[in-house]
């Protein structure tokens, strides 16, 4: 495998949840080194796509390749692959009775045999990378929302994964904290040689740091291209999403998924 190979490749992937198809025929490639924004309205299937990238949700059809290998079916191989994927989940997921440093140390304790002094040093380096070395001994409740998010980011980076996935990293943050977090995502991506996939509906905060944008709506990828091309897209679906209009080709309650654009006669009545 050369480094020119995409770090993520999906080919004709279908993803089902609760017996219903959420995403149809998804094909995409994520080149190494990029920050890719996966955008879409609430309920469009962003988290479902993310679950396929981490192997949590097997594809109902098609092929998912991550870090140059097909998504393993066997649990042990899957766990090994997941060590190469840093995931920052919605919210912080920090353990409240552990300090910031102890939270960041968790993956290192769980997945490496490293002695404590080495783990302590690595934790300090990770906290330094997110600009928070000074709060190593603080508990999550003593941190602002933005700082807690950065600690969660440091924890996701703990095992030096080549691929970072962020699920709604800006939820609950004010505009300033959002700007800090997104600038950090970009800086860490470039300085540590990562690839980053940011799953979000925060378009305007995310596009400025993204190299590539994908928009999901009505069960499919409706746009894939540069942030500039996204802003200029004449597609009514894309425009509705960018403007946040309740009326248009994306149903207001898009939880109905792929078929939601065409309500049943009962729903329409
Ligand atoms: N475990 C599940 N079982 C059944 N249906 C599910 C499950 N998880 C998600 N869904 C459905 O799949 C669709 C897509 O949900 P998903 O969470 O992927 O969307 P999303 O774009 O991430 O939404 P949000 O931005 O609100 O987080 C929704 O219709 C949702 O109700």
TrEMBL record:
Q: What InterPro entries is this protein classified in?
A: AAA+_ATPase, ABC_transporter-like_ATP-bd, ABC_transporter-like_CS, P-loop_NTPase
What's a Gene Ontology MF term here?
Answer: ATP binding
Q: Which residues form a coiled coil?
A: none
Segments forming domain ABC transporter: 8-243
Q: Give the region (Disordered) as residue ranges.
A: 243-269
Q: Which Gene3D superfamilies match?
A: P-loop containing nucleotide triphosphate hydrolases
Note the Pfam families from the entry: ABC_tran
Superkingdom of source: Bacteria
The keyword 4Fe-4S is annotated on this UniProt entry: no
Please tell me whether the keyword Kinase is annotated for this protein: no
Q: Which residues cross the membrane?
A: none
Low complexity bias locations = 260-269
Supply the name of the protein.
Answer: ABC transporter ATP-binding protein
Origin organism of this chain?
Marilutibacter maris
